[in-house]
Amino acid sequence: MRGIYKRAALALAAGALVVGLAGCAAESAPVSDPSKGDNTQLAYTGAESADEQSFDTVTFGSYQGQDITWLALAEENGKTLLISESVLDAVPYDNTAEPYQWSVQSPRPQKDIEWATSSIRTWLNGEFLKAAFSADEQGAIAATTLTDAKNNVSHTAATAADPSVHAAEETTDQVFLLSLAEAKRYFANNAARVAHPTDYAVKQGVYVGVASNDEQPDGAAAWWLRSNGYYAGYASVVTDDGYVHGDGYRMAGELHDGFDDHGSELKSTLGGNIGVRPAIWVETSALS
């Protein structure tokens, strides 16, 4: 399905970073684009904002019988960066990662898995790509070079700022997850990052968080970032309230709030409870 642009305004809360299209233009280069990425995820800084943030939205492709609506995050060199407006599915970051255990004696995972070797990358660029887009639509999605960083558990403050120490393997992908830096760069604050799941994602067991101490579901879902977390075996996550959780959760899944009435998170044994918001760079001409 060819894209149809609309304008969506998000009411935002204070306490995060100014980004959006205007903010992106002030940066030297986006963290991922069709030609180059960088390793600034641990060093990104920006001003906080309580302003309303607006995105163009576009319909492009479909998944599980439902058209996909995307937010347009940036435009550069005839291509537009899109992220799905909703959480589309619930998939572990890596299905070979060590599953969580809730005993006090449970050790942290010893095996680190980078984006380059993760099962979610394979799924996004294989099963999801074929299911969500026609052949023509796939042809309009650019191959994007991505760079990122490994977990930084062993790094000092000095080495954490040195990309040569913690650079992860470079990849080229059509479909990807935002990095930690991109989640901060393109969204003005936590409220802008809040995303709700599709009915299909709910059926797949996506975690639906709680809005407050009244234990009522808020309807929003947590979603993966491609950046490693602080420890080996952890990946960064945007939580259901829009917070960028850089320490991350175990790649096999760890979200659990203890409330049985939010029980979808209890149904997954391998972290399918954390959701997926795919990102793509698309030829802008294919969206009009």
From TrEMBL:
Record Pfam families: DUF6273 (PF19789)
Entry-linked InterPro entries: DUF6273
Signal peptide: 1-25
PROSITE patterns tied to this protein: PROKAR_LIPOPROTEIN
UniProt keywords, alphabetically: Signal
Domain DUF6273, residue spans: 77-283
Keyword hit for Signal: yes
Superkingdom as given in the UniProt entry: Bacteria
Record protein name field: DUF6273 domain-containing protein
Species, as recorded: Adlercreutzia equolifaciens subsp. celatus DSM 18785
Lineage: Bacteria, Bacillati, Actinomycetota, Coriobacteriia, Eggerthellales
